[in-house]
Amino acid sequence: MIDYEQYRSWATIGDHVKLDAIQEHGGQGKAAIALGISVRTLERALVSLRARAKKQGYDPDNDQIHPVPDTQSIKGVSTLYDADGSVKMQWVKSQEKKQQAIHDLIENYEPKPFPVIPKPKKKQRKLCAFYTITDFHIGMFAWGKECGADWDTKIAGETFIQALKDMAEIASDCEEAILNIQGDFLHYDSLDSITPMNKHLLDSDTRFPRMCELSIDLIDWACELLLKTHKKVRVIAAQGNHDLVSMVWIRKHVKKTYSKNKRLLVNDSENEMYAELFGKTFIGIHHGHRIKKEKLPQVFSCDDFTRELWGQAAYSHIHVGHYHSEVQATEIGGAVVTQHPTLSARDAYAVKNGYQSRSRAFLYIYDDNGDEKMRYTIRPPERT
Question: In this structure, are strands 335-339 and 327-332 parallel, antiparallel, or unpaired?
Answer without folding.
Answer: antiparallel
